[in-house]
Design a protein that fits this description.
78% of the residues lie in helices and 0% in strands. By secondary structure, the chain is an all-alpha fold. Helix 3 (66-74) runs antiparallel to helix 4 (80-105) and helix 5 (121-142) crosses helix 9 (195-217). The protein is globular and about 50 Å long. The N and C termini lie far apart (42 Å).
Length: 221
């Protein structure tokens, strides 16, 4: 029963992330030329994480992102069974959030879907790996000490805002396979054909962050 509650929490958190954050991107736009919309989109992603961290963090840890979950798996903080349950819940929540968003603004809005940078698969993968690495290693660091619990949600939210401020002009910033999958599966077209990049690259970034943090934090010489 406890695991089911965790999965429901992850579903809700990812649903809210896509509806509110991708929804902001769809409504106000995220073009680098339009500074206000650009910053609002970055802040929306960060603020959703803050809100959800203090809502469901004590239930599931508020991963709401397969890249975070795989980092926790590699770090030994999540079982294989829970990893699978989390990822299924995250993808389901993201798809449900995108469906509600589409009902509100139509798929012509783009639903905040990601896109390749200059039509380059290689550059897009590199960008997403770097962005995810920075985001996930910040999560691993701030959650490594119990005394950081009171501020962890704020730090994680601001870290997500940070990577969006840089990454939006490149790929729209994924760093989250579920967040990318939900909008792409409903928008279709180029967004769907390239979505694998935004699934694979963040997962690689998450694994790299876990391995590097484990090496850096190891007290043995």
């Amino acid at each position: 029963m406890q695991s089911i509650k965790k999965y429901i929490a992850e579903f809700i958190g990812t649903f809210v992330l896509v509806l509110f954050a991708c929804g902001t991107a769809a409504v106000v736009g995220c073009s680098a030329e339009n500074g206000t919309g650009y910053l609002l989109t970055a802040l929306a992603f960060g603020l959703v994480i803050v809100a959800m961290a203090y809502s469901i963090g004590n239930i599931s840890g508020c991963h709401i992102n397969p890249a975070v979950s795989i980092a926790m798996l590699v770090s030994g903080k999540l079982s294989v069974a829970d990893f699978i349950g989390y990822v299924v819940a995250q993808f389901a929540g993201a798809t449900a959030g995108a469906a509600v968003l589409m009902a509100l603004v139509g798929k012509e809005s783009g639903l905040g879907a990601n896109a390749l940078y200059n039509d380059s698969i290689g550059l897009s993968i590199l960008i997403e790996i770097i962005l995810t690495f920075v985001f996930v290693i910040a999560i691993l660091g701030v959650t490594s000490k119990v005394e950081n619990g009171a501020v962890a949600g704020i730090v994680i939210g601001l870290s997500l805002t940070l990577v969006h401020i840089l990454g939006i002009s490149f790929t729209g910033t994924s760093v989250n396979p579920a967040r990318s999958f939900g909008p792409a599966i409903l928008v279709g077209g180029d967004a769907l054909s390239s979505v694998w990049v935004f699934i694979v690259a963040p997962l690689i970034g998450g694994v790299l962050a876990a391995l590097v943090y484990k090496f850096l934090s190891c007290k043995k010489d």
